Amino acid sequence: MKTLILALVLSLTGANAPSPKQEATATGQYCGRLWSNGNLVQANTEFKTEGDGRLTGTYEFADIGTMTAGTLSEPAAVTGLDHTLDWQDKYGSGKLILTFKPDYSGFTGKWRDQSGSPNELWDGVRC
Fold first, then answer.
1. How far is the C-alpha of 46 from the C-alpha of 27, rounded, in Å?
2. Does residue 127 register a pLDDT over 60?
3. I need a surface site. Which of 27, 35, 47, 109 has the fewest CB within 10 A?
4. pLDDT at 30
5. How far apart are CA 92 and CA 18, in angstroms?
6. How far is it, in rounded angstroms, from Cα 26 to Cα 23?
7. Rg of the chain's alpha carbons, rounded to an integer?
8. What is the pLDDT of residue 23?
9. 3-state class of 75 per DSSP?
10. What is the 3-state secondary structure (H, E, C) of 20-63?
11. Is the pTM of this model over 0.85?
């Protein structure tokens, strides 16, 4: 009973609510999946917000018994939840078009190569 009352008091006082200084951002590591070579494979994506507001990052994905690494870079800063980043790894380069959840707990996206196809799944949730 004491635990329930404490939880209620904390909830009513906002003790568990993030302060304005703890504003959600895309910065962080996300565990997810992406389509590669006809398979849905494990992917780890890490985003960083640069001083000018652009998203950059790195990723790695399961690739025939190893992990293949790549980089991400947003050409210009964007406000909001929708972002388009350039990806590059040993297989080439292209675009990752993604949308973050409003609390930045995850994202869903599609990647494509320089030719504009295919549009394949790439997603993640905070690790």
1. 7
2. yes
3. 27
4. 98
5. 40
6. 10
7. 18
8. 66
9. coil
10. HHHCCCCCEEEEEEEEECCEEEEEEEEEEECCCCCEEEEEEEEE
11. no
Could you tell me the two tokens for 88?
Answer: 């590059």
Q: Which residue matches tokens 């972002």?
A: 83
Phi, psi of 114 (to 5 degrees): -60, -25
Per-residue pLDDT at 116: 85
CB 33 within 8 A of CB 121: yes
| pLDDT tens, position by position, 25-71 | 999 999 999 999 899 999 999 999 999 999 999 999 999 999 999 99
> CA 5 to CA 35: how far, in whole Å?
47
28/34 Cα distance (integer angstroms): 18
Question: Sign of the CA dihedral 95, 100, 104, 106?
Answer: negative
pLDDT at 117 over 60: yes
